[in-house]
Write a structure and sequence with these properties.
This protein is mainly α. It is built from 10 helices and no strands.
């Protein structure tokens, strides 16, 4: 086994993964390639989505490969950087939205109600989010300023950032509130259902892609056990 788990080149390990089960590998790659083909979203746009999601799945191999693929498809450095910041913002989105659970529990205990009573995921969390922001003080102000700057029109449009890249990232963070918010903004900004579906498919590939790339560690281990 190699001295370093995270290797600079995993080509040999991935080749071994394919060799061990060609049918599964080929089926995976057929889906992967279909997702990244031009469609309602361009291949360039899909690679930018992938850059953002890769930062959420925290896969270094995916980050490296998708930055390279984005550049190959004609993305600018600024577009890639803005995509990363969308991923950063959505990574904060789940804890932000789930603060409603903490503040709902707090209110429940304050009123001597068992925590098993009531809802767990409420439809309307405005009250709890307001309480969280008020208790956060200056941090809340800084957070909202960052939020506005990330989603402002720039190298990428607000539509692309929020309704498309953000929607994919929200699926990767598994935050139902973020998904709902991104869909609302997507519809307002004219994103089509087909574009949303393609963005979600990219998120599916990238969450699976982290497993795929890190399978190199398993393959390296398997090969070492055969010695």
């Amino acid at each position: 086994m190699s001295d370093t788990i995270m290797k600079s080149n995993i080509g040999g390990d991935i080749a071994y993964l394919r060799e061990m089960n060609p049918a599964l590998y080929d089926s995976w790659m057929a889906y992967h390639d279909s997702v990244f083909a031009d469609g309602a979203l361009s291949a360039r746009e899909k690679q930018l989505i992938a850059v953002a999601v890769a930062h959420i799945t925290a896969c270094p191999y995916c980050i490296r490969s998708r930055v390279r693929a984005s550049k190959k498809e004609g993305a600018s450095d600024q577009e890639i950087i803005e995509s990363i910041y969308v991923g950063l913002r959505l990574a904060m989105g789940a804890p932000f939205a789930f603060s409603s659970l903490a503040f709902e529990a707090w209110d429940t205990l304050e009123n001597d109600i068992p925590l098993t009573e009531g809802h767990f995921f409420k439809k309307d969390i405005a009250k709890e989010i307001t309480s969280f922001r008020e208790c956060s003080g200056a941090s809340s102000v800084s957070f909202m300023e960052l939020h506005k700057k990330i989603f402002a029109d720039g190298a990428l449009s607000k539509k692309m950032k929020r309704g498309i890249i953000g929607l994919a990232c929200a699926h990767a963070t598994k935050c139902p509130y973020c998904i709902r918010g991104c869909v609302k903004d997507a519809r307002t900004d004219g994103v089509t259902a087909e574009q949303m579906a393609e963005a979600i498919n990219v998120a599916m590939v990238m969450t699976a892609g982290s497993c795929y790339a890190h399978a190199s560690i398993a393959m390296d281990t398997l090969k070492s056990l055969q010695k």
